[in-house]
Write the C-alpha cells for this entry.
Amino acid sequence: MEGVGIAKTAMPAISPLAGEPIERADAEQLAGVLKAIADPGRLQLLSLIQSAPEGEASVTDLTAPLGLSQPTVSHHLRILTEAGLLEREKRGVWAYYRLVPSVIAAIAELLTPPRKRATKRAR
C-alpha cells in the first residue's frame, strides 16, 4: 500500500507479568511504547481515531475535538505512528491515521497477568 507508514515496533516476547524476569532490552521496548501512550492527548487521539465512522481520521478531524493546535496534534500522531500504534496513509495532500489492532492487542496481552489470560480464553 503506497503512502502507508508503519513503524516496526517489535513487542517483547515475554510479559513483565509472566512470572519470570523480563530482559532489559524487552523492558526498554515495552516502556517506549507505553511512554507513547502515557499522555492524555495521545490517549484521546487513539480513542477519537478508533471511534471515527471509518476507523480513521486526518489531523483536521482531530484538532477541534482535542482543542489543540494542528502542529501539536501532528506531533502526537507522529509519536504514536513511530511507536507502531498507528499507521498513516497519504491521500493527496491529506494523511489519514488508523490504529494497528495487532499492536494494541499485543500490548493488552503483555499486560494481562497469565491467570487472567487463561480465564479469558476459557470463556
